[in-house]
Amino acid sequence: MNLNDGLCRLLTEFPATGLIANDHSEKRMADGLLLSYSKGTGDQAWTVSLYAALVQAGRDELVKLPHFQAAATGGLITVLARLLRLGQIDRTVAVQNFGLSTNLYSHDFLNRPPAALRAAAQAAYPHTAVIIRSLNAAHHRDLMDALQQDGWRFLLTRQIYLTDTIKQITCRSDSKRDAKLLDDGRYRFRRLSAASADADFQAALDFYNRLYLGKYSTGNVRFTHLWLRETVARDLLALYLIECTANGAVAGCAGMICEEGRLTTPVLGYDLSLPQNEALYRRLSAFIVRYCAERNLRQHWSGGAAGFKKSRGAVPELEYTAVYTRHLPPHRRAVWRLLEKLSNGPYRRLLEKNGL
Fold first, then answer.
1. Which residues contact 277 (CB under 8 A, 6 or more apart)?
2. In sequence order, what are the beta bridge partners of 26?
3. Where are the alpha helices (DSSP H) in 87-197?
4. What is the pLDDT at residue 316?
């Protein structure tokens, strides 16, 4: 079973909030596709609600900007939030959205006609905008071209980082230093299985929460213990703990998914109380690089930490959400058109200038 089929089955067997605590979307299968209907402006992960991604996640990013620029952008987001609610941007039906920071798509999905993708969603939710997340030109050019011809629009969402070959990484001096660090014998990696103790899964969850929810943003995905255990048991997630070889203490985790030869890491975390010279983030990153090299996988580094990733050979790429709105009333389509112009104009310049 491939990743897409496995996640579709998982997300329809359990209540959404039982797997991801801040996923309040309605799930259903149609024509072999997972549909996720999200509405409202409440407690939603940015990966589930486009409104949350544009408004709440946008506000969380303001701390990375100079003070004056942050204040001006914050004011714009407040005005934009009101406009988005009027245009019902807080109501969308996402096709094949698994609620992860990066969706990896199967060959079957990427080769479906766009009209068929939207038809399934429109039949179930006829008065709602249809979206497809996590698209980039490096990986999805053919699908994006087909979507454009079918009348879809593209909203720029974030800047991501990609590598296609291990040579892109290993030739860099920072990567060479990371590899030496990985081999210094001070830490080891242990893969979890369906038979692993609950305490192991809870440790991984705690490390992820401290980093992504505590340090970064409460709008990030709030995985549950059930999601971790089920994805590991179904062989959808390769979840590792990093342990100190001296005393066996667990210090972090990395959880990776793979589809069609591409890998990304939705679960990552480490003990923030340990000294920085333990270099846990570098160790985890080097482990993921080696994991890809050993399996000949292309690595999707997701967003953030631009300087770190580029210094190790990752190439920046823009990521988009495709939106279909032709079936909506004119006033609602107008709000989407405005959003498209803002995302591909001022927001794009902000992204590229600040490496967000």
1. none
2. 37
3. 107-110, 114-124, 137-149, 167-170, 173-182
4. 94
In single-letter form, the type of residue at position 223 comes to: F
Task: Provide the sign of the torsion angle of the four alpha carbons 331, 97, 350, 168, taken in this order.
Answer: negative
pTM over 0.85: yes
Per-residue confidence (pLDDT) for residue 62, from 0 to 100: 61
Confidence of residue 58 (pLDDT cuts 50, 70, 90): low
Using CA atoms, how far apart are residues 225 and 206, in angstroms rounded to an integer? 10
Whole-angstrom distance, CA of residue 254 vs CA of residue 102: 15
The Cβ-side half-sphere exposure at 183, using a 13 Å CA radius, reads 7
Q: Is residue 136 within a helix (H) or strand (E), and if so which, with residue range? A: strand 129-136
d(CA 53, CA 37): 15
CB 226 within 8 A of CB 199: no
* Residue given tokens 């999707």 in the structure block: 300
Q: Nearest 5°: phi and psi at 121?
A: -70, -40
3-state secondary structure of 117: helix
> pLDDT tens across 97-147, in order?
999 999 999 999 999 999 999 999 999 999 999 999 999 999 999 999 999
In the structure, what pLDDT confidence band is assigned to residue 347 with cuts at 50, 70 and 90?
Answer: confident
Say how far apart CA 15 and CA 301 lie, in whole Å: 29
Q: What backbone torsions phi and psi does residue 279 show, to the nearest 5 degrees?
A: 55, 45
Would you give the DSSP letter of residue 44? -
pLDDT score of 1: 74
